[in-house]
Specification:
The chain has about 400 residues and is α/β, with parallel strands linked by helices. It contains 13 helices and 17 strands. The chain has 2 domains: about 110 residues, Urease, subunit C, domain 1, CATH 2.30.40; about 280 residues, TIM Barrel (Alpha-Beta Barrel), CATH 3.20.20.140. It binds zinc ion. InterPro entries: Amidohydro_3, Metal-dep_hydrolase_composite, Metal_Hydrolase, Metallo-hydrolase_Enzymes.
Length: about 400
C-alpha cells in the first residue's frame, strides 16, 4: 500500500509548499517550502503536482438533511408552501413514494458533499411514531461506511413536531440507538406550547447528556421569546457550547437593539446560530451576531427536496452567498467567512488532519468570492473528491 502522498506546489498564503500526507495516520506529516530541496528518503509515496492550486480548509456543513432529498431520483414537481401542517403532509407523501431507502439517498448526498470539499456534517434525521427509527438506522449504517472520510453528527429530528406528533418515546429510542443530539421544531408554530416543547427538549438533553439543535421558523416576537427561553434553559442546564438554534429568522425581523440584547444572551449562554443564508426572507444579521461574540455556522439545509428545488451541496458557494449578502468585500471580511464554514485553519501545520481542498484561485479570499470548482478534495489523506477524483489527473507519479 502507498503509505504517503506528496502534493507539490500547493499555494498557502501566497507561497508554494509541498505537503506530505500520511495515509496511516490521516494527518499532514510534513510541510516544506517548495523551493527547498527535499531529501530523497521518500519511500512508497505517490506524487502529485498541484501547480499552484490554492489550499482551502475542509468544510463543515452544520445543517443538512441526508434523508429528505431527491438527488438521483426522477424530477418531482413541488407545490407552493401554504401551511406548515400541509407541507409536512406533502413531504411525508413524497418521501413514502420514493423507491429508494434513506440509506441509498444518504450515500448519494454524502458523495456530493465530499466532491465539494465538505468532510464533516451535522445531519437532522427524521424520527416520528410512524417511520420509527427507520431513517436513523439507515443513516447510522451509512455513517459507519463513511468513517474516516466524513465525520457525521446526527440530530434526532421530530419533523412532525415533538409534542404534536407525540414523539417523546421515539426520540428516547433514537438517542439510545446512537443519535448525538436532540432536535426540535417550532415550539409555537407546530407544537403550540412553547415552554412545554422546550422543556421536553431539555428533558431529553439532560437524560441522554446530549446537545440540542432547534429548527426555529417561528417569526417575530414569538421567535424572540422562544430563543430567550432556549438560552435560559441552556444556561440552567450547564449546556454552554452544546446548543444551537437553526434558522432563527426572527433575529432579522425585530429591531437592532432587541437583536443585540438577545445576541449578548446567546453569547453568555453559549448558544450557536446555524444559518443556511436564505435570500428569500429575513435572516439573522450575521455581522451583528459575530460582533457580539455569538458563534455562527453555516449549513446547506434543503437540497432538492419537498421544501425547495434549490441547493447543490457546495458549502463554499454558500459562504460566498453569505459574504455577498452582507457586503463583505475587503480581504479581511472575506477571510472571516471561513470560520463559519470550517473548523480548520487556512494555514495548515504538520500534525493537522490531512483534510482540505485545492481550488484554482488567486488566494483564499478569491476562493470565497468566486467559489471555483474543487480540483481535489482530501480527507484523512485520501483523495475523496474534486475534479481529480473524476479522472482529470492521470499524471500521478508513484515512486517505489
Ligand atoms: Zn432543516
Amino acid at each position: 500500500m502507498v503509505a504517503k502522498t506528496i502534493l507539490k506546489n500547493v499555494q498557502i498564503e501566497g507561497s508554494l509548499f509541498d505537503l506530505t500526507l500520511d495515509l496511516m495516520t490521516g494527518c499532514i506529516a510534513d510541510i516544506v517550502s517548495s523551493d527547498q530541496t527535499r531529501n530523497a528518503e521518500v519511500d512508497l509515496a505517490q506524487l502529485w503536482d498541484a501547480e499552484g492550486l490554492q489550499y482551502l480548509p475542509a468544510l463543515s456543513d452544520m445543517h443538512v438533511h441526508l434523508d429528505k432529498h431527491f438527488l438521483g431520483e426522477p424530477w418531482k414537481p413541488l407545490q407552493p408552501f401554504i401551511t406548515l401542517p400541509g407541507q409536512l403532509a406533502f413531504e411525508k407523501q413524497m418521501l413514502e413514494s420514493l423507491p429508494t431507502r434513506a440509506a441509498e439517498r444518504a450515500h448519494r448526498l454524502l458523495q456530493l458533499l465530499l466532491m465539494n470539499g465538505t468532510t464533516a456534517i451535522r445531519t437532522h434525521v427524521d424520527v416520528d411514531p410512524k417511520i420509527g427509527l427507520s431513517h436513523l438506522e439507515d443513516v447510522l449504517e451509512v455513517r459507519e461506511h463513511f468513517k474516516g472520510r466524513m465525520d457525521i453528527e446526527i440530530v434526532a429530528f421530530p419533523q412532525q413536531g415533538l409534542l404534536r406528533s407525540q414523539s417523546m418515546p421515539i426520540m428516547k429510542e433514537a438517542l439510545r440507538a446512537g443519535a448525538d443530539l436532540v432536535g426540535g421544531v417550532d415550539p409555537a408554530g407546530l407544537d403550540g406550547q412553547v415552554d412545554a416543547s422546550l422543556n421536553a427538549m431539555f428533558e431529553l438533553s439532560a437524560e441522554f447528556n446530549a446537545g440540542v439543535d432547534l429548527h426555529l421558523h417561528d417569526p417575530g416576537q414569538l421567535g424572540i421569546y422562544t430563543i430567550n427561553r432556549f438560552a435560559d434553559l441552556t444556561g440552567e442546564a450547564g449546556n454552554s457550547g452544546r446548543t444551537a438554534v437553526s434558522h432563527a429568522y426572527c433575529l432579522g425581523q425585530v429591531s437592532e437593539a432587541e437583536t443585540r440584547l438577545l445576541a449578548q444572551k446567546l453569547r453568555d449562554n453559549g448558544v450557536s446560530i446555524m444559518t443556511s443564508v436564505p435570500i428569500d426572507r429575513p435572516m439573522p444579521p450575521v455581522d451583528l451576531l459575530l460582533e457580539e461574540g455569538v458563534r455562527v455556522q453555516v449549513g446547506s439545509d434543503n437540497i432538492l427536496d419537498s421544501w425547495s428545488p434549490f441547493g447543490n451541496g457546495d458549502l463554499l458557494a454558500r459562504g460566498s452567498r453569505l459574504a455577498e449578502k452582507f457586503g463583505w468585500i475587503t480581504d479581511d471580511a472575506l477571510l472571516r467567512t471561513y470560520p463559519l464554514l470550517s473548523s480548520a485553519s487556512l494555514v495548515p501545520k504538520a500534525g493537522d488532519r490531512a483534510s482540505f481542498s485545492l481550488a484554482r484561485a488567486l488566494n483564499a479570499q478569491h476562493a470565497i468570492a468566486a467559489a471555483p470548482p474543487r480540483e481535489a478534495v482530501f480527507s484523512g489523506g485520501m483523495l475523496v473528491g474534486g475534479c481529480w477524483l473524476r479522472g482529470s489527473r492521470k499524471d500521478q507519479v508513484v515512486l517505489a
